Each structure stands twice: as C-alpha cells, then as structure tokens.
Amino acid sequence: MGKNAANLGASLDALRALLGDRLATARAVRDHHAHDIAYHPPMAPDAVAFPQSTEEVAEILKICSAHATPVVPFGTGTGVEGGINAVQGGVCVDLGRMDAILSVNPADMDATVQAGVTRNALNRHLRDTGLFFPVDPGADASLGGMASTRASGTTAVRYGTMRENVLALTVVLADGRVIKTANRARKSSAGYDLTRLFVGSEGTLGIVTEVTLRLHGIPEASLAAVCPFPSFAQAVESVIVTIQSGIPVARIEFVDEVVMRAMNLYSGTAYPEEPHLFLEFQGGEAEVRAQAEKVQAIAAEHGGKGFEWATREEDRNRLWKARHDVAHAVKVLRPGAGLYSGDVCVPIARLAECVARTRADLDGSFLISGITGHVGDGNFHAIFLVDPDDPKDMAEVNRLNDAMVRRALAMGGTCTGEHGVGQGKMKFMRAEHGEAVAVMRQIKQALDPQGILNPGKVLPA
User: Fold this and answer.
1) Kind of pairing, strands 91-94 and 47-49?
2) Measured between alpha carbons, how far is 51 from 58 in angstroms, rounded to an integer?
3) What is the pLDDT of residue 1?
4) Quick one: which of 84, 72, 95 has its CA closest to 38?
5) Neighbours of 316 (CB within 10 A)
6) pLDDT tens, 215-243?
7) Of 43, 242, 248, 358, which residue is 20 to 30 A from 184 by alpha carbon distance?
8) 3-state class of 4 per DSSP?
9) How far apart are CA 216 and CA 457, in angstroms?
10) pLDDT band for position 139 (50/70/90)?
C-alpha cells in the first residue's frame, strides 16, 4: 500500500470511529458529490462525511490534517464552476445536516445560521418577523455555500451580494482550529477584515460552519413587470439609462430571444420570442408606482413595447420562477445535452458593447446558446448546450467562453461576477489579478500549508 493510500485509510478509520454511519463510502453517495449542475468532468471523493456541528467539522479537519487527506466542503451542489469536484479525491464534508437557525435578532435585523441552512428555509422561518434575507441566486443554495462563493443574483442591484450581507462567520481552519471572524456589530475598525477574506474563498482557506447575516425589512409593496424589446442592444441600453438615472429598482434582469423561447416551452409562458427585461420595484405604494412609470418611459424611448404588470404575489412568484428556471429550461432546446454556463461582469457603461459582441460570437457558432443577465450591476451569463463527450462541442464552448472572459477583462471587468472561480475560471486569474495572485498564494500557504482544503480550485498551479 502506498503512502497516500495508507494515509487515506488511516483518515477513514478515524472518521468512521467519529461519525459511524455518517461516513459514507458507497459509490452512489460519492457520485452524487462528484459534480455540480454545470458540466465539468465529475471527480468523486473517496468518502463523504456528514457532520452535525462545528465541533465535528473541527475533529474531521484535525484527522484529515494529521494524515494530509484532501477535504472538499459541499453545500447543496448548485454551483456551476466545478468548485465541489474532488480533484484529488479525499473526503467530502457535506454540511447539509447542519441546518439549524441559531438565532434571529429582529431589533438588530440579523440572524445566525448553520452553514447548511438554505436561503428559502431561512425566509420561511422569518415570515412572521417582517424581515427577509434578500440575496437570491435562483437556486435554493445553502447560506454557507453562498458565503463561500460570494454569491449574488437577481436582487444584488438593490441589496448587494453576500459580501455586503454577511456580518460574521465561524470558520474551521485546515488544522481544526475554530475562529469567529467578527461580532454582530454593524461596523468595526478592529484588525484585519477576516470576514471578507473568507467570503468568496470557496473552501480553500477554511470551512464555513456558521454565518451571521444582515436582514432587511419586507417592503410594503412590490410590483413586477416584463417588457419585450426589438433587440438586446435596446434592452441593455434602457438598463444603463435606468441605473444612471438613480432609480432604485429591486431587480432588473435580461433574457435574450433564445432563452425566452426555452422559457415558454419549459414554463408554459407565452411571451414573444424577443429579448425581454424582467423588473421588480419595491417600497411604498406610491414610490413603487412612480419608479415603474419612470422605467416604463425609459423603456419606451428604447423600443420597449409596453409592460406586462404583476402585482399579486402569486403572479410575481410565477414570473420569477420562470426566470430562475432558465438553467433547466434551455435544455429543452437540445434534449440530452449538458449545460455549460459562463458569467462575466463589466462596468455598466461597457455592458451593451460586451453583450452585443458576445451575442455576435454566439450567433456565429454551431452551438445552441443564450444570454441572461443580472444586468443592473453589469453581470451577464452565457448558457451553452453541449455534448460533453464530443471534442468538437467542448473545443467550441471553451473558445466562446474564453473570448467572452478576455473581452470582459479588457473592458475593466472580471472573469466571474458571481459563479466563483472553482476549476472553470482558474486560468484567468493571472490575467485579471496579476501579481496579486502571488499574494493570494501566500495567504493560502499560511492558512493551509499542506494544501488539503479544496485543492485544485481558485489558484492556478
């Protein structure tokens, strides 16, 4: 038996003594933890651990550290950049059973939850408090996973991303030490901002086990609308004017004609197969109406053909569910195909140009692909349908995605607005960050000298 196999065997023996049947080695369980929802070659861990407390996570890390066994944290598996794939095997730590809401403080408008609590579960719990947690990536992701990937989504244009809405974290380090990155105070000047260091670190610096979150008041009134446009350029230009006008929209989403066709087929909607904006306004009754009328006028100036309004909660939910389901919907356009999704974010003034040039690339390709976007903050996604076993498909999707990312970087943007780096975006890190990558590597070395935490992610070799 080689050294690595012996180390792994020793880790699994110790973990089995700690967790009993909450350590799984069955092939089906390992395969379930080998991939996320987009296509990257699946890589299964050697075992999956199901801890129920921060203390158990700490013991798992102590054991794995003692035997130099790789550790990969897992939330709900809803990522798209291969961030949960076990590149070097080892132990997957599934935090799904750590699903307790530890405290809610209505007066301070914050809550502390275990990492496995999902955003929908938290909002159901908050229903009678008049508060809600606004960050909405679409999937019912775990809040620990959302913190680890610095997630955002449809509401980021108004409420910000996880970066703005995480107040503090409990994190288990590679050697099993447990730290709290901050207290519940809304601001502090004491020491390094460790909360922001771990938010977005994708499990490469430590495993997040508890999250303290900023909550917001449920708005008095909400109004949603859908508006078609003759072209995506006109739709995006109307977004830019809306943002520059200072209108505080709660959501402003773009869907191109390809995605709209898929949405109609999948969700049973009957929208024109044209580029659309999906919008939501929140606030007082009069405020919401005033905002909507201003945006309707801006849209009309850019070719918008009129708004379809949704004021009842069930109608708004139906509208946003159709928007959130696009990752599943596009698959109807090529049954059996795999999903490959890329995202970039650019300064708002360059958004129309970046989307137009990307759409031109997609139109010149043989692949079926569409564009959606949280365009209120300059973030958009290209969704590709591919046969993962076809080298021609994979070469083409890599060509198109690389061109989109390099275009965004040339415009002062980023290789990922919200998906995270995972495996998929590592090759762009040096182009985006330059010498700062070496600094990131020094931080990684200081906190994880053996390199056991989610190896093969974020930082290029």
Assistant:
1) parallel
2) 10
3) 41
4) 84
5) 17
6) 999 999 999 999 999 998 899 899 989 98
7) 248
8) helix
9) 33
10) confident
Q: Which residue shows structure tokens 């959501």?
A: 251
Query: According to DSSP H, which parts of 95-171 are helical?
Result: 119-125, 143-149, 156-159, 162-165
Domains and CATH numbers, the chain: 3-94 (3.30.43.10), 101-217 (3.30.465.10), 221-328 (3.30.70.2190), 335-420 (3.30.70.2740)
Quote the tokens at residue 182: 């901050």
Residue 23 and residue 84 in contact, taking contact as beta carbons nearer than 8 Å? no
- Which amino acid, one-letter code, is at 419? H
How far apart, in Å, are the Cα atoms of 271 and each of 154, 223, 267, 308, 334? 20, 18, 11, 10, 20
Distance CA 113, CA 217 (A): 18
HSE-CB of 437 using CA atoms within 13 angstroms: 15
Report, in this order, helix, strand and coil percent for the chain, each rounded to 5: 40, 20, 40
